[in-house]
């Protein structure tokens, strides 16, 4: 988000080596503190789009379904699609109830809903619901931030049998469910490892074993975290609205 200028420059440099913009799917999102007011939400997305400097972005997401705020923010962001600044809109961390509230008034359907989904936190109900609505489920934290899922004996056993790593098994698990996946790594070898997930599959028995790793306690804990986060989270840039790049640099 704060690195839009750098991301845009890196992508333009990559395109200059013979790649086309159509090979990319560029997403940005509006942080909760900028969702407080529809004009601030649009301003925030416009800063990202301008600073990326890649033309229209493919997707602008509402970061959290903030009660009494998210619908107005989404409706304001629809204007970006109408003006050709974004090709589509997305939602993030939306439950089925939030989506239903939104769809009572939205004129543009969200293309994607992104939420945490991995074998230790399988949100089956949400996955099934959004897939059935035709909204792409995008799993974030698919590796549980490098957490216990990678040390699970079940995951490790399946990985050993498939001659793959625990991370690859976790990523494949989401793909087998028809979900898109967004992982993060700062380690080049891991980035290469994490994209080698299209040359194997998981049996229905292994999928069932992985599905069974999610416990009611974990789901309950995640629900508490979700309730807290949807009511606002401090922005990475500190208090106030999202700064433009030059304002951020001047403040350093
Ligand atoms: N919309 C939302 O509310 C939301 C919330 C959270 C995250 N996200 C997005 O989702 C994306 C991914 O989520 P995330 O970064 O939170 O979690 P993640 O992708 O599950 O985990 C990233 C962590 O896993 C490690 N890792 C990556 N590949 C690995 C491998 N093959 N073996 C072992 N460890 C590995 C990385 O370490 P190294 O970097 O050291 O390799 C990093 O610490 C991010 O782009 C994030 O912005 C969105």
Structural class assignment: alpha/beta
Number of domains: 2
**What share of residues is helical?**
40-55%
User: Largest sheet, order of strands side by side?
Assistant: 1-2-3-4-5-6
- The level 1 CATH classification of the largest domain is Alpha Beta
Mean pLDDT: 96
CATH topology of the largest domain: TIM Barrel
Low-pLDDT segments: none
The CATH architecture of the largest domain: Alpha-Beta Barrel
Approximate shape:
globular
Major beta-sheet overview:
6 strands, parallel
Radius of gyration: 19 Å
Order of helices and strands: HEHEHEHEHEHHEHHHH
Which ligands occur here?
NADP nicotinamide-adenine-dinucleotide phosphate
First CA to last CA: what distance?
A: 17 Å
The CATH H-level homologous superfamily of the largest domain: NADP-dependent oxidoreductase domain
Find the count of extended strands (DSSP E, 2+ residues): 6
Distinct helical segment count = 11
Q: What fraction of the residues are assigned to beta strands by DSSP? A: 5-15%
Question: Your description of this structure?
Answer:
The structure is a single chain. With 252 residues, the chain is an alpha/beta fold. The protein has 2 domains: 1-10 and 21-110, NADP-dependent oxidoreductase domain (TIM Barrel), CATH 3.20.20.100; 115-229, NADP-dependent oxidoreductase domain (TIM Barrel, Alpha-Beta Barrel). It is built from 11 helices and 6 strands. The longest helix has 15 residues, at 38-52. The chain starts with a helix and ends with a helix. The protein binds NADP nicotinamide-adenine-dinucleotide phosphate. NADP nicotinamide-adenine-dinucleotide phosphate is lined by residues 63, 92-93, 114, 140-146, 150, 167, 182-187, 190, 193-194. This is NADP-dependent oxidoreductase domain-containing protein. Belongs to the aldo/keto reductase family. It holds the Pfam family Aldo_ket_red. The record marks 29 as: Lowers pKa of active site Tyr.
């Amino acid at each position: 988000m704060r690195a839009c200028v750098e991301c845009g420059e890196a992508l333009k440099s990559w395109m200059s080596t013979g790649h086309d913009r159509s090979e990319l799917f560029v997403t940005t999102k509006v942080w909760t503190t900028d969702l407080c007011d529809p004009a601030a939400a649009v301003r925030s997305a416009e800063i990202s789009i301008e600073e990326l400097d890649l033309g229209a972005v493919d997707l602008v997401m509402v970061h959290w379904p903030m009660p009494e705020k998210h619908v107005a923010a989404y409706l304001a962001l629809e204007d970006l699609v109408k003006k050709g600044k974004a090709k589509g809109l997305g939602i993030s961390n939306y439950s089925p109830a939030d989506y239903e509230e939104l769809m009572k008034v939205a004129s543009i359907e969200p293309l994607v809903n992104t939420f945490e989904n991995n074998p230790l936190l399988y949100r089956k109900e949400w996955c099934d619901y959004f897939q059935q609505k035709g909204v792409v489920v995008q799993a974030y934290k698919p590796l549980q931030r490098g957490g216990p899922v990678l040390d699970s004996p079940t995951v490790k056993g399946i990985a050993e049998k498939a001659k793959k790593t625990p991370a690859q098994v976790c990523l494949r698990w989401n793909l087998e469910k028809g979900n898109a996946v967004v992982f993060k790594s700062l380690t080049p070898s891991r980035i290469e490892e994490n994209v080698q997930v299209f040359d194997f599959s998981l049996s229905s028995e292994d999928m069932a074993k992985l599905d069974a790793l999610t416990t009611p306690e974990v789901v309950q804990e995640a629900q508490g975290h979700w309730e807290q986060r949807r009511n606002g989270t401090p922005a990475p840039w500190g208090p106030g609205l999202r700064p433009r790049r030059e304002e951020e640099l001047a403040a350093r």
